[in-house]
Amino acid sequence: MAPDLDDYRRTSRDSWERFAGNWEREHDFLWSRTGPLGERLVERLDPQPGDTVLELAAGTGDTGFLAAERIGAGGKLISTDFAPSMVESARRGAEARDLGEAEFRVLDAERMDLDDSSVDGVVCRFGYMLMADPAAALSETRRVLRDTGRLSFAVWGAPNRNLWAAIPGMTMVEQGHLPAPEPGAPGIFALGDPDRIRELVTGAGFGDPQIEEVAVAWGYTDPDDHWQKTLALAAPISDAFGSLPPEGQDEVRSTVAERVSERLAQDEAGLDGVALAVLAE
Hints:
It contains ten helices and seven strands.
């Protein structure tokens, strides 16, 4: 059965509100691993001095901060997220960096309160795949972009290329603690197929996108560390796990640890990931 998208939106916003503090506390870990991807997104966006750059689903805001360095004092960064606590996290990050001209807004990417053709570039790291209606969000992105504007975004690739996330999720589904993902439903791997990306991007009015793979080295060596990071950062898994009785938690934890250990024994980089960096004009 297809998910109720309004219910999904409410649940997702609540989750990000509750977990925003965890993402801020884990900032150094996350950015040390995904920072090179953020740099690549901004490099492909190629913002120029004086540009206005919009970041969607900004989280702690770091990718937008890289763009702000390029656009300079004459430019403007609009850092947005649909979870108010995430917006405040980005604001604190900007203050710590003494960032110049920037605006921080609670914004729903599917229904943007922005004028047509009002920004020069849009960047979004791991946002569209989690949105209830990515087609609507991409159409809105095209609307607010100027004719010469660019969109640079990233999503996670296929599950078999991202076992750091696939193993915990698959284990929870197999043991009946989470529903199996519906085809086309929002989720971490919802846009892992390049053909699906092309369909959505061109359907929103962009030309054929350029899609490149970018490796993300998580550097996990300890199954316990991997599991603790999963519980801190993955709200659906953490919430479902927390609702289980002790024996159910033990079964999940031991199964995930066994699978992670087997993977690490085969390849020390076995829990690294692959993101898809997309450039659309």
